Amino acid sequence: MKIIMLGAPGAGKGTQAKMIAEKYGLPHISTGDIFRANIKNGTELGKEAKEYMDKGLLVPDELTVRLLLDRVAQDDCKNGYVLDGFPRTIPQAEVLDQELSKMGEKVDYAINVDVPDENIVNRMSGRRACLNCGATYHIVSIPPKKEGICDVCGSELVLRDDDRPETVQNRLKVYHEQTQPLIDFYEKKGVLRSVDGTLPMEEVFAAITRILG
Ligand code: AP5
Ligand code: MG
C-alpha cells in the first residue's frame, strides 16, 4: 500500500504517519526528518537544505526528488510506504507518478489531514521534537512522560528552528501556494481522502483506519 500524507505544516501528518506505519507494517518516510537528520550530522545535503528550511521555504525539487527516489528504491519499501511531506509541489507529484507507473504501480491513498490556519500557529509553538528518532510531542495535548525527554529514545526534545511564529506564517503561505494544489491533483485521480485533523489524534487515526481498512 502506498500512502501519501497531505496537510498544512503542523496538521499532524507526522503524528498520523507514524501510527499508520506501525499498524500496517510500512516504513514511514518523512523528507523533513531526513533533512533534519542531515542537518544534525552536518552533511553537505543538510547545509544546503537548512538555508531554505530556516526561512520556511521549500528545498528545491531537484534535490528533494533525488533523495526521495533513492529512499523508496530501498528493500524495505517493496510492499509500500507512508510518505510524509512528499510530494509538496506538482512537479514532485508528477515525478513520483512517472516513477511508479514505470513499475505498473500507483499511489493508493492521499490522506489530507485538514486543519485550518488558525489552529496551526498554536500547535507549532507547543511542539517539541526529537531530532534523534523523529518522535513529536505537544507540551499541552501530547506531552512526553518526562518533560523535555523523548519517551522513545531518551534524547533531549527541542523546539524546531522553523517553528518560530514568523517562520510558521511563511510556511503556511508556501503551503497554500505550492502544496495545496496537490489536493486537486489527487482528487482528480480518485485517491484523495480527507479527515478532520482538529479532532484528538486517536480520533483522527480512527478515521484514517476506516479509510485504509
Ligand atoms: P516537514 O518536516 O515536512 O514539516 P511540515 O510539513 O511543515 O510539517 P510538520 O512536520 O511541521 O507538521 P506535521 O504535519 O508533521 O505535524 P506533527 O505531526 O508534527 O518539512 C520541514 C521543511 O523541510 C519544509 O518547510 C521544507 O523546507 C523542507 N521539506 C520537507 N519536505 C520537502 C519537500 N518534499 N519538498 C521541498 N521541501 C521539503 O504535529 C504538529 C504538532 O501538533 C505536534 O506538536 C503534535 O504533537 C501536535 N498534534 C498532532 N496531532 C494533533 C491532534 N490531533 N490534536 C492536537 N495536537 C496534535
Ligand atoms: Mg512532520
From TrEMBL:
Record-level Gene Ontology MF annotations: AMP kinase activity; ATP binding; zinc ion binding
Location relative to the cell: Cytoplasm
PANTHER family, sorted: NUCLEOTIDE KINASE
Subunit record text: Monomer.
Family: Belongs to the adenylate kinase family.
Designated name of the protein: Adenylate kinase
LID: region residues: 126-163
Binding positions (AMP): T31, R36, L57, L58, V59, G85, F86, P87, R88, Q92, R160, R171
PROSITE patterns found in the cross-reference section: ADENYLATE_KINASE (PS00113)
Keyword Protein biosynthesis: no
Pfam family for this entry, one: ADK_lid
Residue stretches making up the Adenylate kinase active site lid domain: 127-162
Catalytic reaction list: AMP + ATP = 2 ADP
Keyword Amino-acid biosynthesis: no
Function comment: Catalyzes the reversible transfer of the terminal phosphate group between ATP and AMP. Plays an important role in cellular energy homeostasis and in adenine nucleotide metabolism.
Entry text on domains: Consists of three domains, a large central CORE domain and two small peripheral domains, NMPbind and LID, which undergo movements during catalysis. The LID domain closes over the site of phosphoryl transfer upon ATP binding. Assembling and dissambling the active center during each catalytic cycle provides an effective means to prevent ATP hydrolysis. Some bacteria have evolved a zinc-coordinating structure that stabilizes the LID domain.
Keywords: ATP-binding, Cytoplasm, Kinase, Metal-binding, Nucleotide biosynthesis, Nucleotide-binding, Transferase, Zinc
EC code: 2.7.4.3
Pathway the protein takes part in: Purine metabolism; AMP biosynthesis via salvage pathway; AMP from ADP: step 1/1
Main location: cytoplasm
Stretches the record annotates as NMP: 30-59
A cellular component annotation (GO) from this entry: cytoplasm
GO biological process: AMP salvage
Residues reported to bind Zn(2+): C130, C133, C150, C153
Residues the record lists as binding ATP: G10, A11, G12, K13, G14, T15, R127, T136, Y137, L199
